[in-house]
Design brief:
By secondary structure, the chain is mainly beta. The protein has a single domain, classed as Roll (Ubiquitin-like (UB roll)), CATH 3.10.20.30. About 10% of the residues lie in helices and about 40% in strands. The chain is built from 1 helix and 7 strands; from the N terminus they run βββαββββ. The strands form 2 sheets. Strands 2-1-7-4-5 form a 5-stranded mixed beta sheet, with no helix packed on it.
Length: about 70
C-alpha cells in the first residue's frame, strides 16, 4: 500500500491499516496532533475505525510547545 503523509510517499506491506495503528507506526502516540484524512479532519474517537487504504492522503500537524 502506498499513501501520502504530509506530501511524502510512505509504503506499507498491508492492503489497509487503521489510523490508530498508523499513528503507532509513525511514533506519534506521545504527541499532540491533528489529522486531516482525504480532506477531512478526523476526531481521535474515530482513529480505530478509520481504515487507511492505498492512495489515501493524510496531513498530520503536530503541536509544538514554546515560550
Amino acid at each position: 500500500m502506498k499513501i501520502h503523509v504530509n506530501g511524502l510517499q510512505k509504503y506499507f506491506e498491508v492492503e489497509q491499516i487503521s489510523l490508530s495503528k498508523l499513528i503507532e507506526e509513525l511514533a506519534l502516540t506521545e504527541k499532540k496532533f491533528a489529522i486531516e484524512y482525504n480532506g477531512e479532519i478526523i476526531s481521535k474517537g474515530n482513529f480505530t475505525q478509520t481504515l487507511i487504504k492505498d492512495g489515501d492522503k493524510l496531513e498530520i500537524v503536530v503541536a509544538v510547545g514554546g515560550g
